[in-house]
Amino acid sequence: MKFKTAGFTLIELLVVIIILSALVTMTLVAINPIRQISKAKDAQRQQDLVQLRNSLDTYLNDANCYPSTLTFGAQFANGGTVYMQKTPQDPDYANGRASYAYETESAGVCPQRQWNVLFAKLSNSQNLQVSCSLLQMKDSNGNVCVPTNYQSLGYNYCVLSGKVNCDYIAAHPLQGVSLPSSTPTPTSMPTSTSSPTPGPSDPWSVPFLGRTPSGQIHLTNCSNVTISGKQFVNIADDAIIIENCNNVTITGNDFSGDVGAIYALNSTNVTVTWNRFQNIGNGTIGSGHSNYIQFNNTWDGYIGNNKGIGGNTEDMISIYKSGGSSVSSPLIIENNAFESPLPPNPNAWSSGSGSGSMLGDSGGSHIIIRNNTYLSPGQVGIGIPSGTDIHIIGNTIYGAQRVSSNVGIYVWNQATTPCNAIEVSNNQVKWYRADGAENPYWNAGNCGTVSGESTNNWHAPINPNSLHVVL
Fold first, then answer.
1. Taking the complete model, does pTM exceed 0.85, yes or no?
2. Does residue 57 fall inside a structural domain?
3. Residue 225 lies in a domain
């Protein structure tokens, strides 16, 4: 007896092939490997610019200015100091994509080069909400603060350091933009036969509390004043008070055990840089008390490269009814490092309120706070209780579980003044409430649309030991 072996008909095979092809197509559409590769390259571009900025800031600390030029894909060095063995290059540079770009006041002498901008092209449209903060700034003539060839070259992302000169940027094209060629030429640097030697111009060359002792300084109706090279210890009030002043620079000073450190009232264009703070505050609030730095009705200026540890502080940096005078002239707060030890350390923060930085308190506008680090600074890392045109960008914030600890970043209008045009982007946050639950961010929803929220890492793998401040 013969048995007939069952098999697939041609039609059945065609149906199976069609179904499998459809499944493969849907899988490829869902995964979209080209898009995933594009997103990965954009993440690399953003990381590259952060690494470059950090190396440039180290160079600034040594040379007191940024380099006039920067070559990508080459060693970044000055004399005997190597800042990067090889600067990163756009991941698609070898495939014909233009290089990263670098901008500073290249025609100026060293003291003028106190800012820089790094540019890149992002490919994934979803990443373009990160954009470039220069687009939100304008020069004195109302022009957008971007180079004249910014759009034609296709750049759409940037990273800033220092208080950029929009009048310079908007009047000049980007220089040195290159396409793939032969071996890159070394970056042009000031000639030097040895590594930079710390001297009086190096703000950290003097040991903490090794400066000239001073009593309280209270200046009124002043202009074009610099306070530098002093130490203020156990002052029973604010150590420095400036009132109705213009063009004041407070740089390279030490503060320890004072009720308050720096208080600027009804003033303009105040610069606070390279100062060190320890154990500031006694729990009282108002008129600069229990603050490292407080601006009250003070407009324009720059707060950068300061560092501090501990104290019964209210807000380490308090921006009260203050900020920049316009979109093109924002108050910039950047590259500061603050820490509060945990109990039982006697320098531990113990206020039931307070924060690392409070912006737009009772109003204020045109504030950029970026690239700062905070280690358990108070009940809040950074807060926006009111204000307009405020940008929290690229900060690293860690809060350990402790009494009264609340939230890493919040946006919540607590005043009758307007609150809008807020950006919270590219921050790394790990924050524990008093009950031990993670609480990195809270948006009360009463400051309009907050841009950039999806670009933050709210549960970042931050090692708190990496944020310890050394005075």
1. no
2. yes
3. yes
